[in-house]
Structure formats: C-alpha cells, structure tokens
Amino acid sequence: MKNIILFGGSFDPIHHGHLNMAEIAKEKLNAEKVIFIPNGVSVWKEKETLPEDKYQMIKIALRSKDGFSVSRFELNKADNYTIQTVRHFKKIYPTDNLFFLIGADQVNEFHRWKEADEIASLTKIVYFKRTNFEIKEDNIKRFKMLAVEGKEIDVSSTEVRNLLRPDSPLRVLKYIQDHNLYYMKQIAKYINGQRLEHSKSVALLAYQIALDNKIEHAYKAYVGGILHDLGKNLDKEIKSNIEKQYAKYLPMSEKLYHQFYSARLAREVFHIEDQMILEAIEFHATGRGEMNPISKIVYASDKIDPSRGYDSRKMIRSMKNDYKEGFIYILRENKKHLLKKMKDVDNKLTSECFKNYL
C-alpha cells in the first residue's frame, strides 16, 4: 500500500512555492508519488493560459524530480470538479492511500467545494500551514484535515505573470519567453528583434549566475535582465527629461541614457518597486561607485551575453564560480574594450565604478 499525493490547481504558471509545498508534503507523508493535476478551464477564473502551456511548464519544472509527475486528466475539461478527479484516481489506485494537497487559503473555502464530504472520505485532505494565516478550525475538524509545515516560499502565480516575483525554475521562465506568455507581451511593445532576444538571453544568464552563487531572491537578477534595455527607444522629449532629472551625472554619452529610462519604465509599466532591481537597471550600462549583488550580475550579464557574438565562455564561468571576482574581471575587460573603441569612460558614474572596483 503506497502513499500518493494528488496536487491540483491552476498552476498558471508553476513556481517554487508549488514545488516547495509538494516536496515537503512528499517527505512528511513518506509518499511514493506526487501527481500534479493542472486544470483546463478553471471553474472560478475567466482568463487563463492555454492548458497545454501550463502542462508543458509543469512537465519541465518536474524534470529530474524523482516521484513527481503531471496528469492530463483535467486539461481539456471545462466543467471538471475535484470530486471527479478524486474518483478517477481512486479507480486507478484503489488500494493505496490517497492524499489531496491544498494550500492554507483553500482550507477556509473547502466546505463550498462540490461533494466536499465525499472528497474527504476518498482521500486524506492535507494542507500546507502558513505563518500568520488564520484558518477555520471548523473545516479542519469536519473534514479531518492533516497539516504539514516547513519552509515557506511566499510567491503567487499572479506575481510571476506580472513579473513582480518570477520565482519559477529557469526552464519555466525560458518557456515563458519562447512562447510569449504573460509579461512578454508587454515587453514586446517596447523592444523587438535582436534587442528583445538580447534581453531574454541576459535575463536567463543573470538568473543562472544568481542561482549558482546562491543569491537570495535570485529571480531579481532575471527581472533586471529582462527589463534592462526596455527604454532603448528615446525621443527628444525623453532625452530632455533625463538630462534634467539626472543632471548630476552629466555629461555622458546619450547612448547611455536608456538605462535611466528603462528604470522609469520598470517602475511605471511593470510596477517594480524593489530598489535592488531598479538600481540594477538604472546603472547597468555605466556601473556606479557602489553596486549591489543584483546590479553586478546584471551589469556583467549584459556585457558577456552569448548572443553578442564573441566567445565569452571564460567570463561566464568566472561569474558562475564567484560573481564578485567575476565582476571585477569583466569590469577590467570592459574598460579595455571601451578605451580601445574610444567610448565614454569619463562620465561620473563609470569613472566612480572603475575607481572603486579596479
């Protein structure tokens, strides 16, 4: 007799919060399998991603995770209810122990689910406890729910879709890019062609470097990377506004102005408020005297992006091994390049960056 966890939801898209819940539940319940069951068209939500895209993102997120799988059972069912899903899997695993995993927020609404009592009789309802979240004890007692607890990853699919906290596996974020999902549609209104491809590549590289260096909230490097060139298209009015707002940094080449406008668009269009991300965007072209870890990673990733057409593998390895040492190495190489090409290295920001780190 095996313990099997059923984990249903919209997963639009899957993120590290979902994966964390499933991994902890699998360990605590000594389960042999965890089956992710994405819905097709939610009973509660009007607009969602195509079911096949959600399925594929879950599939690649679960790659190499032992005992984890994804089911297509609900994908093409517009009017499916959880009770139908539970009955289906009970037929497949009649002698095994089925657990149905839900979030803490779903506990309070569980009594509203269709045939809730039957669901609770065919499976053991398991919920993931959340700090400072009030749960109705009535539902826990009525449906004999079991709590599991562990490390919490505070992220929602809405935050991923809106680029506020894209805390999903790198492969999932690449899928989002490749299939023009969620925030990519908005980004494409500002940049396209090779410039867009460059930004996508920088974002993935920055995220991987942050992950390899075990940077807290590594997804911030991805956000900085995907938005760093958003403001490349500047008209005279925007340039004039930048010269007024950033007068203390002038003179500098107008080709560097886009970093300031990109940060502005990140705030105004994507509602990015995180200062580490905004600073990474705002000074990605020039650098500055004091740079946070995300700023260093985005600056370097922009310079060593493989799509630039030169062999940057050694520099990429240096960043992945130790971003602090790698940043200095890349900064030194970039200074040589700028001097050789007679580019602007005398502006206040770039001068301070070179002086402080080299």
Quote the distance from N terminus to C terminus.
Answer: 63 Å
CATH architecture of the largest domain: Orthogonal Bundle
Helix content: 40-55%
Q: What's the shape?
A: elongated
User: Could you give the order of the helices and strands?
Assistant: EHEHEHEHHEHEHHHHHHHHHHHH
- Indicate the mean pLDDT: 95
CATH topology of the largest domain: Hypothetical protein af1432
Radius of gyration: 24 Å
Oligomer: single chain
* Number of alpha- plus pi-helical segments: 18
Strand order of the largest sheet: 3-2-1-4-5-6
Summed up, the domain count is: 2
Beta-strand percent range: 5-15%
CATH superfamily of the largest domain: Hypothetical protein af1432
- CATH class wording of the largest domain: Mainly Alpha
Tell me what the structure shows:
There is one protein chain. This protein has 358 residues and is an alpha/beta fold. It has 2 domains: 3-148, Rossmann fold; 183-357, Orthogonal Bundle (Hypothetical protein af1432), CATH 1.10.3210. 49% of the residues lie in helices and 9% in strands. A 6-stranded parallel beta sheet has the order 3-2-1-4-5-6. Helix 10 runs parallel beside helix 16. The protein starts with a strand and ends with a helix. The relative contact order is 0.09.
